Amino acid sequence: MTELTMAKAITAGLRRAMADDPKVLVMGEDVGSLGGVFRVTDGLQAEFGAQRVIDTPLAESGIMGTAVGLAFRGFRPVVEIQFDGFVYPAFDQIVCQVAKLHYRTRGAVRMPITIRIPWAGGVGAAEHHSESPEAYFVHTSGLRVVAVSDPQDAYVSLRQAIASDDPVVYFEPKRLYHLKGEVDLSTDLADAAPLGLARVVREGRDVTLLAYGAMVRTAVDAAEAAEAEGISIEVIDLRSLSPVDYRTLETSVRTTGRVVIAHEAAREAGVGAEVIASLTERCFHYLEAPPVRVTGHDIPYPPAKLEKHHIPDLDRILDAVDRVLDRPNSRSEVVGS
Fold this sequence. Notes:
Elements: E1 2-5, H1 6-20, E2 24-28, H2 44-48, E3 53-55, H3 60-72, E4 76-80, H4 91-98, H5 101-104, E5 114-119, H6 134-138, E6 144-147, H7 151-163, E7 168-173, E8 180-183, E9 199-202, E10 207-211, H8 215-227, E11 233-237, E12 240-242, H9 246-256, E13 259-266, H10 271-283, E14 292-296, H11 307-310, H12 314-324
Parallel strand pairs: 2-3, 2-4, 4-5, 5-7, 6-7, 10-11, 10-13, 13-14
Antiparallel strand pairs: 1-8, 6-12, 9-11
């Protein structure tokens, strides 16, 4: 086991994938000599050369279009979108070409493209540098969507994404880039949990608490705080936002009878809405209370000094837990939660 930050774990995943398969290319703005703005690709160009770690123009649509052409020719491009808010110029390419070409050609053409996106807030970034666009891609058939929450999963799931013949949108929570954890660099992908499975982070019996990305750590903190009050919360990291591992979620909800989901993205038509709707259909007769969402507010992402009011925190999650347990002092309606 090696202790790495999440950023370095992702670097290690890229390095291993490139060493294993000469068809794997990395491309994006400043990914070469600079090593990316978060230094995730640091050293890779010196190791693999400028033909495999490619600095591109500042043109996300062009980057994605080039990746489509490379995939046509049998390569496995890994595209870095420098910041989450920069992905929108590439949106047309992703939803109209990347997500559809495999289906349109009845399997004759594959699009093994991995789209890495530094994602979400909590780092005090400028406008357009902190966004939560995951629902757009979850809504798009033909894309896998993954959100990682710790260094070990980041290392393994990135390698799995690159090896997948499906296009994968791979969300990396920016505020966890410096999070350290033990990483097994010798992990064999054949022995790892499949890319689409959720993970039970903490077992519990009273409430199922779902989260993904950086919100998983907040969910665990909430579960630990609730334990002091005699409440047992099961925390599940979704990991895969499309497809969702409903089998794992159903097993938990049928035991606890209560479910809360937390995410930083806006409430309206968010991932939480879909997950709760699907769980209600599948587990209606097991539910003891209406499920509750704890989310960001339905506003454009706020300025850095206000983002702490936007990102769900421990108190908001615990309030939702009180509501599904019908505990005294819980509020019946919380704007933005």
